[in-house]
């Protein structure tokens, strides 16, 4: 005859829970996070590839649009024009795929939201796309002509500008794309505040650091000239202020 178990022994025993009965609290292991990240990167790359296929049929029109501010260009090496066109096609594909890319970015960065709160993605994704293209338009139509006029002002009878297709394209892309990402700053600040990771007091405390960092960022991610660096630093400061005012006066965080 087996002795009866004491109350203490019974308390120590925990019933086995099958995987189907495990509560779903939305938590994920590191491996699952990495697997999800890989899946979203692959889907984003496929969207860029599909967008590049679409933009290929409009490559001449896109190239004429990008080169309009400077006029005639030249290529100095046999493969230069081919790789320049390829770069334009990939960047255009990236821009076409932006809604898909931003959707996966926000889906990955906001795993803690409840199912109801994730409906905010319906606002975040179009807002992200609009802000990004606003930044590109700001750079291309307002800042780029000023920069080109400044640099072409060095023309003299003895020194004439002769722009390479590849070099001009690299300048335009490195000039414009940072503006697209910088214009996302208010949205990022608002999301972080809404998640409780940032407050208006925090934003005000580190405002002077952001002002200094904006010029450092401008120097790092734009072409090496003062006009490009200042042109990026000033929008960073302004957009940071916009995000700060929204968090303080509208969200009241």
Structure, briefly:
By secondary structure, the chain is mostly helical.
Fold and architecture overview:
The chain is mostly helical and 253 residues long. Helices cover 70% and strands 0% of the residues. Helix 7 packs parallel to helix 11. The N and C termini lie far apart (67 Å).
**Average pLDDT for all residues:** 80
The end-to-end distance, rounded to whole angstroms, is 67 Å
Helix content: 55-70%
Protein structure class: mainly alpha
What would you call the shape? globular
Key structural traits:
mainly alpha, 70% helix, 11 helices
Write the layout of secondary structure elements.
Blueprint: H1 7-12, H2 30-56, H3 59-67, H4 80-96, H5 98-109, H6 121-152, H7 165-182, H8 185-194, H9 200-205, H10 207-221, H11 226-250
Helix pairs in contact: 2-4, 2-5, 5-6, 6-7, 7-11, 8-11, 10-11
